[in-house]
Amino acid sequence: QVQVVESGGGLVQAGGSLRLSCAASGNILSPNVMGWFRQASGKQRELVAHVTDGGVTNYADSVKGRFTISRENAKNTIHLQMNNLKPEDTDVYFCGIVIQTHVYWGQGTQVTVSS
């Protein structure tokens, strides 16, 4: 079993910053990929950024240059530093870890950016 726990999120004004953190625990096998996704009500979950346990990162075009994902392998923890936030970044953010063919999700955390 794998557990995923997110922290961070909240309300911020446009142009502000927030930091999300996510810790995975349990039977964490390598290789794996950890990442952040976001989902608005009634829409599909979309990738924000992910990082492999080898340190390779990937970002959605909409967040490049504003968001930075980092990883602490020893703790199976990732962080998402979000700068210059925009109202369109408002969503529920989910952390996920992909191990072999399985995806394990956290419960989600709300990020709200006011204009």
Helix/strand structural class: mainly beta
Per DSSP E runs of 2 or more residues, the count of β-strands stands at 11
Low-confidence stretches: none
The shape, in one word, is: globular
The helix tally amounts to: 0
Average pLDDT score: 96
CA(first)-CA(last) distance: 41 Å
**Helix content bin:** under 10%
Q: Output the radius of gyration.
A: 13 Å
Q: SSE order, as H and E?
A: EEEEEEEEEEE
Question: Can you summarize the main beta sheet?
Answer: 7 strands, mixed
Q: How large a portion of the residues is in β-strands, by DSSP E?
A: over 45%
Tell me what you see in this structure.
The protein has 115 residues and is an all-beta fold. Helices cover 0% and strands 59% of the residues. It has no helices and 11 strands. Strands 2, 4, 5, 6, 9, 10 and 11 form a 7-stranded mixed sheet that branches. A 4-stranded antiparallel sheet has the order 1-3-8-7, with no helix packed on it.
Characteristic key phrases:
115 residues; single chain; globular; 4-stranded antiparallel beta sheet; 7-stranded mixed beta sheet; 59% strand; 11 strands; mainly beta
